[in-house]
């Protein structure tokens, strides 16, 4: 049972780099043998064949902060394949669209979960905001616990 972790975002846009930082932190930990970790600046259609080869996929990304959430809030959501409307696919792909591509083109979409943290800033600056940086160890523990639970 293979699990693919995809940490993505832009480390030059403050909290947008969360997925990259989290994936790198996870890579330094003892995890189940069947876990593969990859980092990307953004999701792209080229990831769909790899997604079709795994049983579980974990996406890690920063989330926009809503008026009901404070920066640094950790969220977990089960994902389902979702096809986009014709003409709505741009150079930005979301996890649900990639899952739909894997299912449509390769006959399989993995079980997928999105772990995210609400961002405080997407400013043009390196490093995480204090709120997101404080949430990072809790996020790593949550993902690690999830990995051992599904293994």
How would you describe the overall organization of this protein?
The protein has 151 residues and is α/β, with parallel strands linked by helices. The chain contains 4 helices and 5 strands; from the N terminus they run βαβαββαβα. The protein has helices at residues 18-27, 48-51, 95-106, 130-150, and strands at residues 3-8, 35-40, 56-63, 74-79, 111-118. It has a 5-stranded mixed β-sheet. Helix 1 (18-27) packs across helix 4 (130-150). The longest helix is centred in the C-terminal third of the chain and has 21 residues, at 130-150. The radius of gyration is 15 Å and the shape is globular. The model has no long low-confidence stretch (mean pLDDT 93).
What is the topology?
Elements: E1 3-8, H1 18-27, E2 35-40, H2 48-51, E3 56-63, E4 74-79, H3 95-106, E5 111-118, H4 130-150
Helix pairs in contact: 1-4
